[in-house]
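Reopening this ticket.

The earlier resolution said the output was attached, but the attachment link was broken on my side. Pasting everything inline this time so it's all in one place.
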Amino acid sequence: EDLHVAQAQIEAQLVELSALRDQNRGLLLEMDEDREDRVTRLYKMLENMRPAQAAAVLEGTSQPIALEVLMRMNQAKAGRTLAEMNPEQAGVLADQLGAAVVDR
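Inline output:
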């Protein structure tokens, strides 16, 4: 009888864990969609700026976001923007852009 009680408790916990897992997946999906929307808005704004202005904005963002935006930009515009950035930061981003292209 104790074994049946323990088994029922384990099964109940498994159901609860499964529900939590599904809830977490939903939250992660929402976060990914929100991030995608924000990056798209930023990309569109920067695409319409002068390269020096876009460079100044990207220098203030995290590298993953800057990389994502540069990858979406027109290649010529991205190059002009990188040319306006701090050379050290531009070099890091260029390396990451090269790695991202190789990984595709």
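Reporter confirms the inline version is readable. The chain has a mean pLDDT of 91. Helices lie at 2-47, 51-59, 63-72, 75-84, 87-103.
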